[in-house]
Amino acid sequence: VIDNLEPAGAGALMALLEERKRRLQADGLFDTGRKQLLPFMPRVIGVVTSPTGSVIRDIIHRIKDRFPLHILVWPVRVQGETSGAEVTVAVKGFNALAWDGAIQRPDLLIVARGGGSLEDLWGFNDEALARAVAASGIPVISAVGHETD
Questions:
Q1: What is the Rg, in whole angstroms, of the alpha carbon atoms belonging to the chain?
Q2: Does the chain have fewer CB atoms within 10 Å around its N or its C terminus?
């Protein structure tokens, strides 16, 4: 006879994620009317990712091949306990920049990292991060994971 059954491991994380998604949905964060149009030709692109690894090299290479734009990189950890908080600070930090400041405010943000397990990507499921992206005055592209994750 089973007296108690609790999800563990990935099951516990998925249950937490579903509850978080329900809460954010109830607050209207996923409403289609909230989506911002991407600028046709951004002048400055802010990239939030690890300063090392293939993701940042790929992004810079692709952008420079197509458009000679200015790229600002806000280096963050993209895995581990502090990753969600670091990405949140970066999104808010880019939004705090002045359009005419010494460091120009980006017209577009890209939050990026490669794929990984649910646990590896967990920082990107952070509620404060979701709320920071929703509050961003700068359109944000999520480039997290691969198609399968």
A1: 17
A2: N
Phi first, then psi, for residue 32 (nearest 5°) are -65, -30
pTM for the full predicted model? 0.84
Residue 114 belongs to domain with CATH number? 3.40.50
Both tokens of residue 19? 């509850």
Q: Report CA 97 to chain centroid distance, whole Å.
A: 18
User: Which tens digits make up the pLDDT trace of 91-125?
Assistant: 999 999 998 999 999 999 999 998 888 888 888 88
CA distances from 110 to 2, 22, 77, 124 (A): 47, 25, 15, 13
Residue 11 lies in a domain: no
Q: Mean pLDDT for the chain?
A: 89
* Number of domains, the chain: 1
